[in-house]
Amino acid sequence: MLDSAQLQAYDRDGYLRVRGLFSRPEVGVLLDGVEHALAATRRIGDMPDAAGRSSKLALWMDVREDVFGAATRHPRLVGAARQLLREDVYHWHSKVMLKEPRVGGAWEWHQDYGYWYRDGCLYPRLVSCMLALDPATPANGCLQVMPGSHLLGRIEHGRSGNQSGADPERVAAAQARLQTVHAEMDPGDVLFFHANTLHASGPNASDAPRRAYICCYNALSNRPFGGKGHGNPEPIALVPDDAILAFARAEA
Length: 252
Prior knowledge:
By secondary structure, this protein is α+β, with helices and mostly antiparallel strands.
């Protein structure tokens, strides 16, 4: 699915943006499932930023029998994750993120491996796949990334207001040497990013929501030690390519 130039870009930058990986009709089906996902999830995060603005986050570790489960097992995501990690993968966790208009908050600079290291993963051999369900722009708090920051290694993380963030001194030093890129996306675009890539996002200052689905995969060789970690470390049974649209037809 991904060509050699895309794989090289990911290895160099620590992220890869793929345009139009999912169609607008597929995105529409996923959008219809957002409220159900929020309602059906016990682990709902409401993480205020320094200004007291909050974003909603619904997180689950199983592979659901719903439209987001179809996305989790979709060959376009799983296939790309396998290519980027150069081996088979399993589902680590998934989440739906919602930044509501005018009140959706910012996320501090952090690495996902800053958290997952403590879950027993010896290597940062994990990839996150962020599927835009709404247009993502600087105005509504799109993701920001630092190209090449995955090569810095794991940075210590601690409390940053009500969130957990990377060491501010290290982040400032990285910002002085690296670019900061606003990962603007249209619905259906997917941003793949390395577990050590520094990323953050601003608040939603617009009048429209910013919703996204993020699926994270771990390399099968990177099973956590000590019975820790997320997900079930077994190969993923892929769904057909039209599974998201078929789910909508079945529900009709």
